[in-house]
Amino acid sequence: MLKSLARRTLAALFALCRVFPVRKNKAVLLRGFPHWGALEAMERALLADGRFRVVKIADWRRPGTLYHLATAEMIFLNNNFSPLAHLKFSKKTKLVQLWHGDGGWKRWGHSVSSGAADVSFGNSRTPSAPKIPYDYAICNCESVRPFWAEAFALPEARVLPLGSPRLDALTRPYDKQALRMKLDAQYPQCRGKKLMLYAPTFRENPEENRALLSHFDFDAFQERFGQEAALLLRLHPKMHGQYDLGNADVIDLTGQPDQDNLMRVIDLLITDYCSLCFDAVALDIPVLIYAFDEASYMNKDRGFYKPLRELPPGPIANDFPALLAHLAAPDAYAEQRAAFAAFHLGAVDGGACGRIISMLEKGLAIHPGK
After folding, report:
1. Which residues fall within 8 angstroms of residue 37, CB to CB, at 6 or more apart?
2. Phi/psi of residue 170, each to 5°?
C-alpha cells in the first residue's frame, strides 16, 4: 500500500513538472551506480561539443530532480532505475541506457529468469509490471546486441552497437608512469614490484560471499610471489562489509573510488566472472580466471550468455595450485585475449560518445508507449 502510494505521488509530482517545456540540448546524467563511469565520458563529450547544458544527478531524491527529468531532451543512465517506470515522459525526451558494464558475458537483467540476480530489474520477476520506457540501450558491438536486447527486454532495433563511453574514458591517453608513482607513494610496499589485482565478483548467496576470500590462499601467494609482486584486492561494491581479511598480506583497494587509474597501472588481473576483465582486455592486460566454483556458478547463479570456456579472456584455473602455476608462466594468451576483446568490445576507438551524440541529433529515437 505504501509503495503504491509513493509511486502515485511520484507520478503526480512529475506530471506537475511536465507543464514546463522540454529544453532543447538539455542533457541529464542520472547516476544509479557508485561510479560515474560512462556518464562521466558522456559529460566530457557533451561539454566539448559546446551546445549542451549538462545536469548531473547523483541522488534522485534531491529537490529539482523531477523538474530536470521532465524538462530534459536527453536522459542518460548508467544503471536500472525502477522509479522511471512510473513516469510519463514527453515524446521529445530521449531515455538512453549506457549501463555500467561492457560486453556480453554474465547473464543479467531480464535474462535471469528468477529476477534474483538483478533486484533493480524488479519487473523481470513480474512481467506485467511497468517497464522503464528506454528509447535506446547502447552496447559495445553487433555480436553482443542480442544479449543486451534480452537483458533490457527491448527490441534489437533499439539496442545500438555504438561502442562504450566507459572505454572511451578508460583508454584515452594517460601517463602510466605518473599514475604508478602516485600509487607507490600511497603504498610503498608496491615499489619495484609487479602489480597483480584480484577482483572477484559477488555471488547471489550471502554465505558464499562471506566465504569468498577463503578460497584464495594469501599465504601461499606471498610465499611464491611476494618478492616480485604486490597483491591488490578489489571486491564488488555489493560485498562491502561482508568479508574478513584477517592478517592477509594484501592491499585492499575495495573502497578506492578511482577504478580506472587502478586498471591502468596493474600488470595482471586475477578474476572469476567480474566485468573488470573487459577493462583489462581493452588495455591489453593479461587476465587469469580463477573459477573455483565454476560448476555451481554456471548452474545455480547467473550463468553466461556465451559458455565460459568457449571464449575466455585467458587461462582458467579451478583450484589454487593451478592458479599459482599460471601466474608463474609467461603470458601466452595475447591472441586469445584479442579474440575475446573483438567479440565483446568491438572497436575501442574512443569515438563511442561522439557516435551517440550524432545518433541523437539525427532524431532516430523511437518512443513506443510515450
Report:
1. 78, 100, 165, 166, 169
2. -65, -40
- Taking the CA atoms of residue 338, residue 315, residue 187 and residue 256 in that order, the dihedral angle to the nearest 10 degrees is 70
Q: Are 250 and 196 in contact (CB under 8 A)?
A: no
For 127-193, the DSSP string reads TTS-----SEEEES-GGGHHHHHHHHT--GGGEEE---HHHHHHTS---HHHHHHHHHHH-GGGTTS
Interior/surface letters 302-330, b for 16+ CB within 10 angstroms, e for the rest: bbbbbebeeebbbbbbeeeeebbebbeee
Q: What is the mean pLDDT of residues 333-354?
A: 95
Mean pLDDT, to the nearest integer, of 27-50?
92
Mean pLDDT, to the nearest integer, of 187-195? 96
Residues near 187 by beta carbon (within 8 Å), at least 6 away in sequence = 230, 251
Opening angle at CA 41, ends 40 and 43, nearest 5: 65
User: What are the tens digits of pLDDT across the range 303-334?
Assistant: 889 888 999 999 999 999 999 999 999 888 99
Residue 333 grid coordinates: 594468451
pLDDT at 115 over 60: no
Residue 298: CB atoms within 10 A of its CB come to 16
Whether the CB-CB separation of 279 and 168 falls below 8 Å is answered with no
The answer to whether 222 and 251 are in contact (CB under 8 A) is no
Give the model confidence (pLDDT) of 272-284 as tens digits: 988 899 999 999 9
Beta-bridge mates of residue 28: 55, 75
Write down the residue that cell numbers 602516485 correspond to.
Answer: 182
Residue at 264: amino acid letter: R
246: left (phi over 0), alpha (psi -120 to 50) or beta: left
pLDDT band at residue 367 under the 50/70/90 scheme: very low
E-assigned strand segments in 234-318? 251-252, 268-271, 287-290, 316-317
